[in-house]
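>> received
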Amino acid sequence: MDRIIKRLKKLWNDRSNFNFLLVVLSVYIFIIIPVFKDKISGEFLFFIFYYLLLSGGAPFLIRNSRLGILFLLLITPFVILFSEFFFRSVWLKICADLFIVVYCISLATIILIRTFAKGHVTVHRVLGAIVVYLLLSFIFAMLFHIIYLLNVETSFKGLVTNQRSEFMYFSLSTLTTVAYGDITPVNALARSLSNMESLSGQLYISVLIAGLVSLGFQNSNTKVNT
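>> returned
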């Protein structure tokens, strides 16, 4: 166990892990969601996706979290998602979604801290910022799924299925403010969350660009002064 933890800690300084997370998120969002619409295969692929997300995100969390808390964040949703194959319970899905939200928020926070840490603005920092942007859409997708599970038919119109992938599509459309209108939030909470996501998407891009540019100028000035 100690050997595994040491290896994960070494990976903390390896920013190439951003590449792995970006590939996992991109494949799930842009390939798995539009291609695999069958309920069984969709749920199974989501299970694999979460496993890969755990594998790629654990090195970033291991240094900043106590082992017990980290274990809870990583393993609990994994066990609950696996249980969904045997027990069709709404509350199991809600619990899994909540744990995934907490995990993704923690992961996004750590990556943002690393992205805007002191140092040169490299391609890995840019990739880290993109990973956080996609994680943001994933977080909102889980929240939309929770709202749907609690309110069922009174929360959204235009849904083809009730899979998480359906809400991932809606979330990314909202985050980028594309808003095709094929899926629309109906109740007050879903509408409010949609507005919050679209605003977050716009602010994130503007603040991110300003922050990275500012960081780049600071590094340039430091070089000139030295």
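>> The chain has eight helices and two strands.
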